[in-house]
Amino acid sequence: MTARNGAASESPAPTLGFSAQADVQDALVHWLRWMESERTLSPHTRAAYSADLGEFLTFLTDYRGGQPPSLNDLSDLKAGDFRAWLSRLSMDGLIGASRARKLASLRNLFRWLDRSGRLHNPAIASLSTPKVKRPLPRPLTEIDADRFLNESELDRDDHWIGKRDRALYTLLYGCGLRISEALGLARKDAPLTDTLRVTGKGRKERMIPVLPAVSEAIRAYLDVCPFTLAPDGPLFVGARGGRLHASIAQHQMQKLRGLMGLPDSATPHALRHSFATHLLADGGDLRSIQDLLGHASLSTTARYTDLENEQLMNVYRSAHPRARKG
């Protein structure tokens, strides 16, 4: 394949792995190079985009009776042609999330083709993105959450690190924080009183009540921490005194869930889910839980109601005599 002017200074042409008309191949090569140089996307991501477009062009080739499409053909595509492709993906068993991702790849290409002056096709803008069903949160049970907090302190050889881990996980579970919010706290923000001010997504602040168990865990950690923590420095520090990274907390929880026989869904974020789910089960109202979690939309918080209903139905199916009989 021959590139355009300046090819001597360009990286080698990407291997597309599928057949297409020469003008489409040339456009795709430049599009992939643009994503590498301007968007700085990883090779893995660019390969995923290329695979999605390859599947689409293969579909079009079959759809058109075996003739690979040219740029003119792509510009003439109607909304019905795109919908036929999406319908084929659905018949092939792809879930909404996968179809939405492939459509996003196609939109990315067509926007670039439009901006670069190669073709204009407004039909793709009229397509609705396939609905993506967000998975329900997977919290720990109250018993497993309590067991986990105890084990998180005992598993560490260094006494102070065990206290740190328990303080961090207790904070996530007791206040419903995101891991980034907890690790972003400064020493002066240590929740040793009955309230905690947190800056969450979108730089929005919220006030959260602090349980005595949370304050006690934080105080126990600070009492044995071997480092002098500056007021404006991080509250949670690593083994060398620098800010604790989320990957350390995630890795330790992965290790503990294996030792305790907990599911793979037992992550630091699951402690936040557990906070909300257990509040709801104990009579908390959705609006208050929304404020505590810092959700912008009540519909996001309402997923916990769906989870509670699902759990109730599981209990019914396993316990009710008529349900067991089918």
UniProtKB/TrEMBL annotation:
One GO biological-process annotation of the entry reads: cell division
Its subcellular locations are:
Cytoplasm
Q: Which residues form the Core-binding (CB) domain?
A: 22-114
Per the record, its GO cellular-component terms are: cytoplasm
* Catalytic site: R178, K201, H269, R272, H295, Y304
Q: What is its main location?
A: cytoplasm
On whether Ligase is a keyword of this UniProt record, the answer is no
GO terms for molecular function, please? DNA binding; tyrosine-based site-specific recombinase activity
Q: Which domain of life is it from?
A: Bacteria
User: Where does the Tyr recombinase domain start and stop, copy by copy?
Assistant: 135-317
Q: Which UniProt keywords apply?
A: Cell cycle, Cell division, Chromosome partition, Cytoplasm, DNA integration, DNA recombination, DNA-binding
Q: Give the InterPro entries listed for this entry.
A: CB, DNA_brk_join_enz, Integrase-like_cat_sf, Integrase_catalytic, Integrase_recombinase_N, Integrase_SAM-like_N, Tyrosine_recombinase_XerC/XerD, Tyrosine_recombinase_XerCD
Give the family per the record. Answer: Belongs to the 'phage' integrase family. XerC subfamily.
| Cited HAMAP family | Recomb_XerC_XerD (MF_01808)
Q: What does this protein do?
A: Site-specific tyrosine recombinase, which acts by catalyzing the cutting and rejoining of the recombining DNA molecules. The XerC-XerD complex is essential to convert dimers of the bacterial chromosome into monomers to permit their segregation at cell division. It also contributes to the segregational stability of plasmids.
The record's subunit annotation is:
Forms a cyclic heterotetrameric complex composed of two molecules of XerC and two molecules of XerD.
- From the Swiss-Prot or TrEMBL record, give the protein name: Tyrosine recombinase XerC
